[in-house]
Amino acid sequence: MNGRDLVRSWWSVGVAGAARGPRTVRAAWRRRGADATGPGPRVRARVPGAVRTVEPGPGGGVIRFARSELRVLVAVNGAVFWGWDGAGPEPSYALAGACPEPDPRAELEPDTDGGWRVVAERVTVAVSRHGALEVLTPGGVTLRRDLPPRWWEAEDGGPARWMQRSEVPADARFFGPGGPVEWPRPRDGAHRLRNGVTGTGSAAPVTMPVQLVVADAGTHLLFVDNPWDGTLTLREGAEGAGSGHDRVGTSELRMEGGPVRGWVMAGTPARVLLTWASLAGAPALPPAWAFGHHHVREGAGGEDEVRRVVAGHLERGLPLDAVHLGDGHLDGGRAFTVDQDRFPKLPVLADELRREGVRLVSVVPAAVRAEDRRGEGVFPDLPDARVRYAGQAARGFAGVWHTVDGSVPFGRVDALCLGRAAHEGLRDEGPADERPLVLSPSGWPGSQRYGGVWSGEGAVSWPGLRASLARVVGLGLCGVPFSGPDVVGGARDGGCELYVRRLQLAAYLPLLRTGAVGPADGGPWEHGAAVPGHARVALGERRRLLPYFVTLAHLARRTGAPMVRPVWWPAPEERELRDCEDAFLLGDALLVAPVLEPGAVRREVRLPRGRWYDTATGRAYEGPAKVLVDAPLERIPVFARAGAVLPVRAEDGGTELEVWAPAPGRSGGGLVVPESGDDGDGPEAERYSVTRSGPRVVVRRETEDGAQEPSRPVRVRGLDGTGAQM
């Protein structure tokens, strides 16, 4: 098996700049169509059978059954690999490098009833004599049980479809896969594991065969390393009235072909995502300006129209950090071209806007139109690591965003390789002290190594607003921390109110892009006379929190922890928090409760354990509790954790520390990572501690030489005498 076998449904294409002709593309389409129809008549299903022989090795070994074999490996980072029918962990586009070394202290040993097991420090893996694989905690509590897989093989020797059923504890909750669900916790039923586009060409949510499962016994993540189309069917369990009456949760995975292999990692949520990042790669660190306000301009106007849009934002006091040029700036819609009639001096325009703090970002369609055959598309040979974008930095672009035509079945692994080509090309050609921005509408585990995900405008409706939050949360739990929806307007289903609520939510998500549905191409002022005032507040708060977003991005790169987290993240053992789907944590300091229903001016918020301050009123609340708070159209409820230290933008443009007072007799603290402006991992994190004694709050910077006075201005909040409310 080689890397090409993993992507049978890819386009057969040539290297950019020397692409193959339309005949090759049409042949690739015929092969893809044949793959899509699946193999011919089937024989009866094949199962592994009983154990025959065992070959122990470092970290595990190979167990041979009557009709198949299973390879089990426990790596030094605690991750568990399993692969059937000779499938190994490599080659894999998901892995950031070579497979991690096996744990030398773990090996196969006999288990009860003719089975085998591998005992490691963080996990135990048990394999029954008929091929069921069970992952347990060090204390012996079951986290998941995968039943033996089943294959349906073609008589003509083509690819075999396969399925595998799994069981999890009755109290477990499923999260993932990626962003195709309308709720942070996917509902029972079937979920298609494929990417695509809607009939209008809008990007579909990213789907990844990654599943996070949270239960009382612990948290674990499952990654099935197979890019073929498939279906995941989920059914949550239920606890009965007594022992023996529980109904376990189940998941059933059916794939159209490809290898039967995957990884499992267990522990706390933070430990799981750290291990996952060590396998799939650390997330790319976006440039600092990428956490500002982006505006998408799709129209066919030229350079003066771009200047008009930028001036419109600045005149109305609306912060703007980037303008994304859509297909309208391309010559005939061909990627990597510029319409010279409308953009004759694009580099000059880019330099002019950069002096005002605004970057230009170019759209790049997935297909490249041939010079001599306008209208016919060719595609770069994406698996070739030599493929790079060229010339984008010279045109003045600081980043790219990819789109997919509605007729093109854009693959998940295609998006990963396309992101690599863009990231490495911009990095090599751009200024040495600037990091590139790459956004894609699709992806595969490992895509985070090169950029983030924009999930399109989605449905311009109140259910679509809730779904946009679910996608960002889901992607974060799959290892993609930088994502966000497009904030667009429309008269249907909500109008001005819906646009404002979408913008208020996006102001607290990693990626904030505004745009339009229809011919309008200006800013928020085109969505209603009352919108600019509300937008000014939301975008102003986003600008104030930029240092905090930068810190979270650095921490995501170093630890794999998502920037946007479900409220159960610090306390997965609290069951009520697992079911909270209408709020989220931004880092560990802020809890954001967006308004997701029309006409709402108050809403109920579930607070985790500890003291929380309403950032608008300063009132303190003690959790765990449900509180009813005001949510006027001017703002959404946001709470700060007592003892938190947030880096925020000061009025003079510098960075100051916003400290929320701990409860009397308690302490707190936080990390700050200042923006470095280079392509490295950034400077060392600054660690601050906070203590409170009566009305006095003391903030110290903790260093190797001991505690010191902070070198940044400090502003303490929460000491206004309002007291804690139950």
Automatic annotation (TrEMBL):
Task: Show the GO MF annotations.
Answer: hydrolase activity
Highest taxon of the lineage: Bacteria
Q: What is this protein called?
A: Glycoside hydrolase family 31 protein
- Residue stretches making up the Glycoside hydrolase family 31 TIM barrel domain: 283-375, 419-552
Which keywords does UniProt give here?
Glycosidase, Hydrolase
Q: Which family does it belong to?
A: Belongs to the glycosyl hydrolase 31 family.
| Domain Glycosyl hydrolase family 31 C-terminal residue range list | 560-646
Alphabetized Pfam families for the sequence? Glyco_hydro_31_2nd, Glyco_hydro_31_3rd
Q: Answer yes or no on keyword Hydrolase.
A: yes
